[in-house]
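It would be a great kindness if you could assist me with a short task in structural biology. The matter concerns a single protein, recorded as an amino acid sequence and a row of C-alpha cells. Could you please explain, in whatever detail you think fit, how the C-alpha cells follow from the sequence? Thank you for your consideration; the sequence and its C-alpha cells are set out here:
___
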Amino acid sequence: MKLLEDKNAVIYGGGGAVGGAVARVFAREGARVFIAGRTQAKLDTVARDIAAAGGTVETAVVDVFDQAAVERHAGAVASAAGGIDVALNAVSVMHDQGTPLADLSVEEFMRPIDGFLRALFITSKAVAPHMGHKRPGVILTLSEPGAKLAVGGILGHAASAAGKEAFARILAVELAPSNIRVVGIRPHAIVDAPAAGSYTKDVFTQIAAAAGESVEELLDGGGLAQGTLLKRLPTLSEIAETAAFLASDRPGVMTGAIVNLSGGALVD
C-alpha cells in the first residue's frame, strides 16, 4: 500500500520548487493532490508531471494572503474530496539576508516575519476545520536553521524562522484534541533549488556576491555545505520524501516536533 493512499492533500505554493517537489511525491504515494498558488503556468507544470505519472491533481489560483479566498478554496476542496487530510504551506516570501542591524530598515526586518507568519496563520486557520476527528489530519510547516544559528545579518529571517517553529508547536497543542498532528520541517538551504526555482537563488545572491562566489558555489561547495556535519545540503527530493513520510500514518504519534534536515548544521 502506498504511504498516502486515499488521502487528500492541499499544498499552498504548489507551483514552487519545494511545493512542487512535495506535490509530485505525495501524488506518487497515492494522495489526491490540490495545489494552489498565484501563477497558473507554474501550477500547470507541476500538474502535468503528476498527471503524466498517473497521479491525481487539481490546481487553483489562490493568493495566500487573501484570507477569504484561502478559506473558500479550502472549503471547496473539502466539499469535493470529503475532507482534507494533509496540508502544507510552501509559500516563499522574498526577504533580505546579509544586512546587519545598522543598515537594516524596519520594513526589511518585518517583511519575512509578517509574510511567512501571516501566510502560515491564514492557511492553517482555513484547513483546520476540515481535518481530523475520525480521520487523522496533518499540518506540515517549513522553517530554516536561521531559527537557531548564531549568524549575523539574518535578523528578520531568523525571527521569522523561530516564529514558524513556535507557531507549529503551539498549534500542535491546540489541534491535538481534534486528532490533527502538526509537524515542522527544518531544511537548510536546498542545493538543487536554484535549478528548480528562483527563491533560493534570489535570497542568497547578496551573500554570495559579498563572498565573491556564485550562488551555486556558495551552496554546494562553499561555507554553507562545509558548515554541516555531512558536508552537504539537503536536496528537494530528500525534503519531499521526508514530508511524505511525516504526512503518512506511520509516524502517527509525532506532533509538536521540528524535524531537522539541516545535514547537521544544527544538532538538536
